[in-house]
Design a protein that fits this description.
This protein is of the alpha+beta class. The protein has a domain of about 220 residues: Penicillin V Acylase, Chain A (4-Layer Sandwich). It has ten helices and 18 strands.
Amino acid sequence: MKRRITRRRFIVRGTCAAGGLLATAFVPGCRDKGGCAEVLPEQPPPQLPPPVEFTYVEGSTAAFPYLEVSGNPREVGKAIGKRFGGLIRKGLDRRMEWFKKIRDYATGEGLSAYEIFVDAARKHTPRALAELEGWAEGSGLPFEDLMALNLKSEMSELIHQKTKEMPPTDEQQPGCSTIVLSTPDRLYHLHNEDGHDAYADLMFMLKVKPDEGVPYLTLSYPGILPGNAPALNASGLVQTTNFISSREVRPGVGRYFLDRMILEAKSIEEALKWATHPERAFAFHHVFSSLPERKAVAVEVTATKKEVRPISGLYFHTNHLVFETMKDEEQDEEYVSTSSTNRYEVLDAWHRALEDPAALGRTSLLEPLSSHERKPWSPCRHPEGDVHGYTLATAVFEAPAGTMRVSRGQPCLERWMEYEQPAS
């Protein structure tokens, strides 16, 4: 059954969608009844492993494709790959010239480093690796392709260190912007998720109930392990991330594998242990918020250094290292001086003009993230010329409300949906 959606905003709560198209398919159980003349008590159904469950929600301009799934990591990954394999292929096809260089290096000259990354993932994040294997099985894509894609930052820097080649202008597009307001009474955590415009129609939402660990809700890229895009789990833990263009890399645990494990963290402290893992391979910036505690923490890491900063008051971050012990670490200066610095200065000017930051609410905090000042390097990203940066979504988390509000595309378009926090 299809129904035209006329409302701009609607709410997804559990497996029910108001204003959306809902279809549910469960793996059926079986019941064996006796066929004898004598009436026998009905026998209980056999004890089978719990089924993997799927729920699809579509039909609104504000709605990302949506999947609910439960099971062990391999089952979860297989269901995701099966459902979204077409989107993964489209993403790879659209960026094949870029991806082919990474894949060819990972399976050729960089094979020894690639194998160390795989071994590190198997040793330290086996659940994440099993899930990625499931993605490959479900989508029918080679595991090596998906593994190379999930090591794109690490492999790209290894290639740069060998060739000194800079990425083409049209590939220097990433960049996210984050704003947090933390007071004793309130907590707002907002994030513009920016990426290549090739992914504008390929992102999707996942609600996962793992066989072990904490259930989580997350926006996801096609082919990338969940955790890189904004997420909220059943413990009330929020994670958003910002790419850092570090010049330091070492074979170890890839950043996307650590992100994935953070999704199941029960607390900020547990999340920080993953973010600062001693075998981490690359740089990153994370913001973790605990909605029940109204508490937020930011952390900048490189492969060998880290700084953790509790957030009090108004905080913002883009895509370069700014903490005192981190800001002098070597980064891609061209990327920093264009995309990241421009957005940072727009947010900084907005911040400096505020009379009372603590009094801001959701609408006021969204204003700078909707700004087009200094486009195409503005906080609200729209492609222009060779600049393919695109605000794929904006996520808003607010304490004490256990919800995740997500815009499909740029926040200036105001295409919002709200999802409830997963149940434990």
